[in-house]
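Entry for S-adenosylmethionine complex. Fields follow.
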Amino acid sequence: MPGLYPFCAYLKYKRIASSKHGVHSPFVFDLVTKTFPADKTDYSNFTAELWRNECLSSTEEIDVTDFGTGTSGKRRVADIAKRAAKSPAAAQLLYRIVKRFAPKNILELGTSLGISTHYMHAGNPSANIITLEGCPQTAAKAQSGFTKHHINAKVITGDFSSTLQPALDEIRSVDLVYIDGNHRKAPTLLYFSLLKKYSHNDTVLIFDDIHWSAEMEEAWNEIKSDPDIHVSIDVFHFGIVYFRKQQVKEDFVLKW
Ligand SMILES: C[S@@+](CC[C@H](N)C(=O)[O-])C[C@H]1O[C@@H](n2cnc3c(N)ncnc32)[C@H](O)[C@@H]1O
């Protein structure tokens, strides 16, 4: 993760993150002891890693509109796989979270080549997954991977500002949402306010890159302070929130 802001944020995270010993909530203790730690699963044969390797060794170039940076032009698929996709370790944590909660309806904001989507599908193959991507050629490439590897995910192409609401209307109730695109404060808070309306007490919202920039840090602070959010967990790469109104409001910064 480049840049001075995330580097300083990482040093702060390392200083304040606590281990399982500081966790008194049974729900969070269970997560931190059973779901978060790397397990012995051999992930090398997961379609996600096969697809990542196919993309990394591809010589294909596609026309990319980068909604994150606002730039556009030709990019090598290999380069996108290297830079945009979640690292194996973080994507595998996402997989274990999906496996733990077995969400029926999953929504992803930011498909890119679909590597994280593959992992979420592996976590619960019977889940109904909708994934949103702004760049048409990137979405088409992701779709080719889903078709090839029999991943049950529907890709909707277009700016989140025009695709999120229809996707929510289609899915009606979300069980797990992974927000991994458009890492700016105002849009992130807008997505959060929309997602809240389609969430229930057990919905899990996972925000990527919460320490990417000062404005993402502000967005994360507002999200976790929201009165409807009772549990927030910061594992640096992800900010995970739960509604769980039966639980006393508490924020965790946890080693992972
Ligand atoms: C970091 S990548 C997603 C990586 C993917 N989740 C993975 O780990 O394999 C973010 C993606 O979000 C898309 N994106 C960013 N802002 C967007 C917006 N406003 N509308 C639609 N797509 C957007 C970008 O085009 C990019 O492909």
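NOTE: The beta strands are 61-65, 72-76, 105-109, 128-133, 153-157, 176-179, 204-208, 231-234, 238-242, 250-253.
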